[in-house]
Write a structure and sequence with these properties.
The structure is a single chain. With 678 residues, this protein is mainly beta. Helices cover 7% and strands 39% of the residues. The strands form eleven sheets. Strands 1, 3, 15, 16, 17, 18 and 19 form a seven-stranded antiparallel beta sheet that branches. Strands 2, 20, 22, 24, 25 and 26 form a six-stranded antiparallel beta sheet that branches. Strands 4-14-13-12-11 form a five-stranded antiparallel beta sheet.
Length: 678
């Protein structure tokens, strides 16, 4: 037995003991909001650390001797019996939510001057992951984009950033220090988030012990810093999902675990299935973030959240980018109704968490997606792509507004309110929901659907849109990404964009990110075992932590014959105009920093300059030592920034970064400056 393998078995044994025998239930807060249920806080497990270099060493050993490291667990097919019983919500609006964004033959022309990604590149391919589906996942940090897919974790330098030592390993090798029980385990459903506040990466997955199909575990890894390199240290944690905090979910497994994050906690939620694979409910976990950063795992479980008509199914932990949050959130689909989502509030997430009752949110009527044909499909109906069910793909909160997306079957008008025989294409549905903090009723603000309006109901040329995810930046602009295909079309990746000024429910800018000419008939995913081809199983769209404006998306597409790749694309905010006015127009003397928005003359607010605020690398500042000089400092994105001196209604040319600028007794310092000039 190799020394590496002995170390792994010792680590796994230690973690298994911690998970099974060392948990301590702490006391609960005596005061709870009305109707909330207190959780049992479990603490007592310390993390185990390993560097990326150690992970790479293990990867080399696994590559050389794969027979020593077990095989994939074959899990039973999931049976979501409740889907057959779902009915339309009586209050759900029946009509189409918006005009279409794109037709099958000719997309709507871009409303922006340009809607082209400034970054657009492939990351991992089928030959890297060797798994179906890839569980399309990745997110952006300060200097890297980190892909964490089924079978592979790999980092990529952002455009314009120096190439640094990257991480490149299988998911099995990466999570080896956190494996419960023994080193032979099957891993899947990875998620990753970059936390701007702590400058850390948080990665999750679920794992099965060899030979088992129940009692699986949640795995976590936390980076030591903002860059994922060979020198990065990772702290690993694991816990058996049904053996921690409150008891329950016996002889069951958790599936599709999500990962949300805010300044207080991590939020993981998933569906529970019994030993035969039948749906048995849903469970969510609240994990104290401060404890993770200190090397300790503190978890509170809430079981049974999927029970009842308003049960929260496939609960998504919400990613909240705001800094002044006091509660956390989960959101999922309703167990009983189409046209309804279910929200869960988490009180005191950094202390003694408590969970609210299910809160229904009525949305436009939706339906389960249909299976989708694609060009060159050689397996007939069983070769169609699976759009999964009506679950949400991701969820993000900004300034009290929750943004989320799902796939839904629609007709040629974008409506799901039609006979099933007419719902023959899939649309990418997105929603903005107002969520009052603490209490108050959530309400749908706007919703839209990317769908094909050009093809008649039964037309073989109809196009579908799958696995959409959405993000909204600090300016209020939104980016939606997904996959798209149809019988005459290859499988491509797409993105659609809206600015804060666009009409409600619309995504007027559309771009196809990849070629769509290849055929997809991989031998390992021919549909024979399930009756359809796996795809997705999700995707991710996110906001750049450098400027709170640039948005990134990662999507699966067919890159060559019988293969897939995960494509990453990034979009900058609309550029600022050269003709501007400013409001308000303060006279600032002796101030070291301030925020003023500058708007274009006679144009839309979305074209104005934007300051993301203190704490961002591209937040400008200025200092006036004397004189009634009006100073403006703001940025439109990291390459389009404006710091300048306004004098007699004239914009003074900008100084270089780090230099000073003198004008009529005004001393002006530019801390961050992009390349754009007025």
């Amino acid at each position: 037995m190799s020394s590496t393998k002995r170390r792994l078995q010792w680590i796994a044994a230690a973690l298994a003991f911690a998970a099974g025998g060392a948990w301590i239930a702490s006391g609960q807060s005596p005061r709870l909001p009305a109707g909330y249920r207190a959780g049992v806080v479990a603490e007592g497990m310390s993390g185990v650390s390993a560097t990326t270099a150690q992970v790479h060493a293990l990867q080399r050993e696994m590559d050389a001797h794969p027979e020593r490291f077990g095989s994939t667990v074959r899990k039973p097919a999931k049976q979501r019996d409740y889907l057959e019983k779902k009915i339309p919500h009586p209050l759900s609006p029946p009509g189409a939510s918006s005009a279409p964004t794109a037709g099958a033959a000719e997309p709507v022309r871009e409303a922006l001057d340009t809607f082209l990604p400034f970054a657009n590149f492939d990351t991992v391919r089928l030959q890297d992951t060797r798994l179906f589906p890839p569980d399309t996942m990745g997110t952006v940090g300060v200097s890297q984009f980190l892909v964490v897919a089924n079978g592979r974790i790999r980092s990529f330098a952002k455009p314009g950033k120096p190439a640094i030592n990257a991480i490149d390993a299988s998911l099995a090798a990466f999570f080896s220090p956190a494996r419960p029980g023994n080193p032979f385990v099957s891993l899947s459903d990875p998620r990753v988030r970059f936390d701007r506040g702590t400058q850390r990466w948080f990665i999750s997955a679920m794992g099965f012990d060899q030979g088992q199909s129940v009692d699986n575990s949640i795995l976590l890894a936390v980076s030591s810093g903002a860059e994922a390199t060979t020198e990065t240290s990772w702290t690993y944690f694991s816990f058996q999902f049904n053996a921690i905090s409150s008891p329950g979910d016996v002889n069951s497994s958790i599936d599709y675990p999500s990962l949300g994050l805010d300044k207080n906690a991590l939020y993981i939620g998933g569906d529970v299935f019994d030993q035969a694979g039948h749906f048995a409910g849903a469970t969510v976990f609240v994990i104290r973030k401060a404890a993770l950063l200190a090397g300790q795992l503190v978890v509170t479980a809430f079981r049974g959240v999927g029970d009842g008509d308003d049960g929260c199914v496939t609960p998504m932990g919400v990613e909240n980018l705001d800094s002044d949050v006091a509660e956390g959130y989960f959101i999922g689909t309703s167990r009983r109704y189409f046209g309804q989502l279910t929200l869960l509030r988490i009180a005191d997430p950094s202390g003694a968490p408590a969970i609210s009752p299910s809160i229904p949110v009525v949305i436009n009527l939706n339906a389960n997606p249909v299976k989708v044909d694609h060009a060159g499909n050689a397996q007939g109906v069983q070769g169609y792509l699976d759009g999964n069910d009506d679950r949400l793909i991701n969820a993000m909160m900004r300034r009290g507004r929750l943004w989320t997306a799902q796939c839904t079957a629609v007709n040629e008008t974008g409506s799901a309110n039609d006979a099933k025989a007419n719902l023959l294409r899939d649309g990418a549905r997105w929603m903005e929901i107002r969520v009052p903090p603490g209490s108050g009723t959530p309400a749908l603000v706007q919703t839209g659907t990317v769908f094909d309006a050009s093809a008649p109901t039964n037309s073989p040329s109809r196009r579908s849109y799958l696995y959409p995810s959405i993000a909204v930046n600090g300016q209020g602009h939104a980016l939606l990404g997904g996959s798209t295909t149809g019988a005459p079309y290859g499988i491509a990746a797409f993105a659609a964009y809206r600015t804060v000024d666009d009409p409600p429910g619309t995504l007027p800018s559309y771009a196809t990110l990849t070629p769509n000419v290849s055929t997809y008939n991989p031998p390992g995913n021919d549909g024979s075992s399930r009756g359809f081809r796996r795809w997705g199983d999700y995707s991710n769209t996110c906001v750049d932590p450098e400027d709170d404006m640039t948005m990134w998306t990662i999507q699966q597409y067919c890159d060559s014959r019988d293969s897939y790749a995960l494509r990453v694309a990034a979009f900058r905010a609309p550029p600022p105009p050269r003709s501007v006015t400013y409001a308000p127009a303060p006279i600032i003397v002796g101030k070291t920093s301030f925020i003023t928005r500058i708007y274009p003359v006679g144009s839309r607010q979305s074209r104005g300059f934007y300051d993301p605020g203190a704490g961002f690398p591209f937040h400008p500042s200025a200092l006036v030592t004397r004189g009634p000089i009006r100073i403006k400092g703001s940025s439109a994105n990291k390459c389009l920034a404006l710091c300048g001196c306004f004098w007699a209604d004239r914009i003074v040319p900008l100084a270089m970064e780090g230099s000073t600028f003198d004008l009529d007794g005004c001393h002006f310092f530019v801390r961050h400056l992009g390349a754009w000039r007025v």
